[in-house]
Coenzyme A biosynthesis bifunctional protein CoaBC
Amino acid sequence: KELQRENKDLEGIKFLVTAGPTREIIDPVRFLSNHSTGKMGYEIAKAIIKRGGEVKLISGPSGLEAPEGADTVLVESAEEMFEAVQESYPWCDVLIKSAAVSDYRPKTREGQKVKKDSRKEEIQLTLVRNPDILFEMGKIKGPGKIHVGFAAETEKIKEHGEEKIQKKNLDFIVANDVTEEGAGFAHHTNIVHFIDKNGDHSKTEKVEKSAIAHEILDKVLLKKKSENS
Ligand code: CTP
Ligand code: CA
């Protein structure tokens, strides 16, 4: 299998990959974010390059080094990520959305630092919904394009995965149970469930994220081949 992968089997295929968390600004010194490190998406980008594919990587703030050979665009908020994805979408054959996009953002972005008010024991922060990038791209999904989603779940993996496949018009989803030891954010390893739109469901062992990246690309390639035949 490794041999075949070294064989530039992704040559001629264009991948748009998103990675990392988003940051939703509250004021000049504060933001809302999540625990995503970007590792999964960056490993996917590296694996694509190794196998001869082309990749645009749209990344939230991760601190990771841009993979050599990838066209990397750094963004901050979900809205910025949405714009960057829209711009590059027509170019791609495959969209892989591994970014952990913030579902909500502060309604107002304060121009000055919010000061502590000694009279207030409690304050409110109003949040508004961010665009669901994968859902929006699913609505305008181009012919022959493959969309891959990710999901971090704490329960009902299969049900939630299948719902997201339908709702977001995905080909398959890579779901992980963040309650499992050695899975999810900030680990080198992960345990994932592959849930396909055709109903197939499989689960990996606890393996390196780079190995999961290659498995995802194997599945994409299989789908592309079955479409072309
Ligand atoms: N996603 C996205 N834009 C958003 C939120 C999520 O593109 N605003 C993408 C993620 O990149 C991921 C997939 O949708 O590939 C699923 O993300 P997830 O957070 O699991 O799903 P949600 O639809 O946001 O549902 P919930 O958080 O309620 O489980
Ligand atoms: Ca979400």
